[in-house]
Every structure is written in C-alpha cells, then in structure tokens.
Design goal:
mainly alpha; Endonuclease Iii, domain 2; Endonuclease III, domain 1; 13 helices
Length: 210
C-alpha cells in the first residue's frame, strides 16, 4: 500500500497547479484571476474532524460561528465534549444529529495517527466507519488534515458550481460526474479542488470552504 503525494507547502500547490494547467488550460486561467491557491492545511486529529462534522450541510458562515462557540466552550477537547450535557451542546449550536456524531467521535478512541501511513482509499474508508462521517467529511479531512494531493470531495456543492461555471456545463455536475471530469487531473485532484474553491469565491464573492 502506497501513500501518494502530500501537500506540505505553497510550493507544492504551485507545482500541482502548473501540472494541472498543462493538462487542462482552464486551470491556468483560474490561477491568473484568483492568484495563488491557499494550502489550507490543518492539524490532524479530533478537533479537525469535529470541525468537518460541524461544516456538514451548512453555510461557511454558519459553520464558522458554531466553531467559534465550540472553541470558546472548550469542546474541541474530546474529554470535555464527551462530558458535556445536552444544554451545553445546544448552547454551541449543535443540532441533535451533530451532537450525537460529535459525542460518538469523542468516545470512539479513533487512532488518527494510523491514518498517516494509509493510502487515500483506506483513509476514507476508515473514517467512514465513524458515526456521522460520510464520504464528503472523510475527503475533507484527508485533503486538509493529511494533505492528500489527489483527494477531491466531489460531493461539495461549491466545487460542483465552480466546475459548472469553469467548464460551461448546462447544470451542476453530480458527485459521479465531477469525479469522472476530474479523472485526468490525477495525481493533483486535491490541488484542483483548491483551485475550484478559489474560483468559486472569485465568481460568487462567497467562500466555498473555510
């Protein structure tokens, strides 16, 4: 089992963007209008996966506000979150399902360190064994916390909308359609995702990811 390229720095993003532009010139035009694409690396572990759970199916602004309350309450620590009562969770803005997912994660004893040595498909499969973790959340974690250069969360609506605009598609591509479109971008699909998020922000004046 082989672990692919890891994104450690802005230089890695620039290298990937240059390779993408040779395969698909539209990415070169995106770089020209957006400037350099952000690395968006986060620390691996409980807090970052919890952050991704919070971001499920809500706007960037709503997720950011909830996360700020979680930090203020100290619930980014698994022991404190596991001990928090329902009132404390509601005060932070957790919905009932997300409170359940967050508690389950806090109590899971999941071995985050072991993921560093696993290939992308195994990482994503193992994360999805956790309650409330679907493919989008697993891929967001793999891309941001582990820096996996070839992981694209194709179910992300902002990515789909950016692809629709960039490729002049008649409608937003589905998850499967975006994965098929992105196949030639391997092994830099994670960099392509960063470019599409940057393009989404440029086109809509809204952040697609935080």
């Amino acid at each position: 089992m082989t672990v692919g390229r890891i994104l450690h720095s802005d230089d890695d993003i620039a290298e990937g963007a240059a390779c993408l532009a040779r395969v698909e010139p539209r990415f070169g035009r995106v770089w020209a209008v957006t400037g350099a694409w952000p690395l968006r690396r986060r620390d691996a572990g409980f807090a970052t996966l919890l952050h991704s759970i919070i971001g499920q199916q809500v706007s960037v602004a709503s997720a950011g506000a909830l996360w700020d309350r979680v930090i203020a309450a100290g619930l980014d620590d698994p022991a404190r979150l596991a001990a928090a009562d329902d009132a404390a969770m509601r005060a932070c803005g957790f919905s009932r399902p997300k409170a359940r997912y967050a508690r389950a994660l806090a109590l899971s004893g999941f071995d985050f360190d072991a993921l560093c040595h696993q290939p992308d498909d195994v990482v994503i499969a193992q994360l999805q064994t956790l309650l409330g973790i679907g493919r989008w959340t697993a891929e967001i974690y793999a891309g941001f916390a582990l820096g996996r250069a070839d992981v694209i969360p194709a179910g992300d609506l902002a990515l789909q909308e950016a692809a629709r605009r960039l490729f002049d598609l008649p409608a937003r591509p589905s998850d499967a359609q975006l994965r098929a479109l992105a196949q030639p971008w391997s092994p830099w699909r994670g960099v392509a995702a960063r470019g599409l998020w940057a393009y989404y922000q440029h086109e809509t004046f809204r952040e697609g990811i935080r």
